[in-house]
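Database export, one record per block. Field names are fixed; values are copied verbatim from the stored entry.
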Amino acid sequence: MLGGERLADPYPYFAHMLAEHPVHWNERYQAWFLHRHEDVLWALRNPAFSSDRVRPVYETHLSEEKRAARAPTFEVLRHWMVFLDPPEHTRLRKLVMPAFSPKRVATWRPRVEQVVQETLAGLRDRERFDFVADFAYPIPAIVVAELIGVPAQDRDLFKKWSDDILTLVFGAQGEPGRRELAQQGLVELTGYLSDLVAKIRRDPGDDVISSLVTAHDVEPPLDDREIIATCALLVFGGHETTTNLIANGTRQLLRHPEQWNLLRDEPERITTAVEELLRFDGPSRLEQRLLAEDLELRGKTLRKGDNVFLVQSAANRDPEVFDRPHELDITRQRNNHVAFGFGVHHCLGNFLARLEAQVAIPAVLDALPDLALDGPEEWHTTMMSRGMKRMPVRRGAVS
């Protein structure tokens, strides 16, 4: 699924699977793949498709030796709300939700605008640069660090940790030593956060870590392991999705110059444009679930314990739902994409990611109207996320 040209452009393959094999058992991955929008949405709403998929693998599928070797990883991931079902998931999510509500996120707009302009200031006089490293990554990294309560001088520490963890959480293929690197990154990240939580507990402020350490309205109360694990998830997840959204979206606009020019000339279209970029080439390729019971779907029997992948990238181009599904149209009005999932696990940071993209992308069009792609991109070899390691760009394009 990730081989050759499919890594950069998986959409012809997904279109074929959606049309010919909408519910498909893949022998290599030992998992079901659901491609239709109707089926993906149904699964996202259905509690039979469980997110509690780390614990069963660790407890029942690993040898005693492997369990011992991976214990540090499991001790963190088992507290991540993305790997939990209600009521445990609900207990953790409700504590963090206020910081990511539409009302709270709206108050961050001036700071996001400031970060975007400061980042652009260093690029205006550069003929060539890496759009991911120099623009798409720093903006969400700075914003989420401030939101959570990470000191400014420590932000750069998180880049390597996040890249290492990415290869494990999102299922990188063909990268030797990835589990060891990911575990080392998790151990270092949680060690750092343990010290930071202790400092903030002594002197809390107005950030997410402070709200977690001072929470008194949750039963049972959060222990330090849960607080540290939740912060690790927010640090990791808080910038990865947005980096991919800004980079993938800008890349597609550059590949569709008529859409680039339309948005440059009519920046008020940015809200619908971001939704269309999420649909057309979003930051998440698929989500994973574990079946909690036997199910029948389109003549296929899915068994309890089966792994299931919900292919958002295919669902978002389903011709039964979207007119002209393979056409990028930033004026599209009906856009029921599932780029951020749906249901109880709907992406917690979706409002913040949207805001950052709505600010960052028009700023690029305004400040760098002659931007152009400059050679092949380098993609992360991850199954679940869709993002680039590098996106070379240059100035001097003719519009």
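Remark 1: The two ends are 35 Å apart (CA to CA).
Remark 2: The chain has one domain: 4-21+30-387.
End of record.
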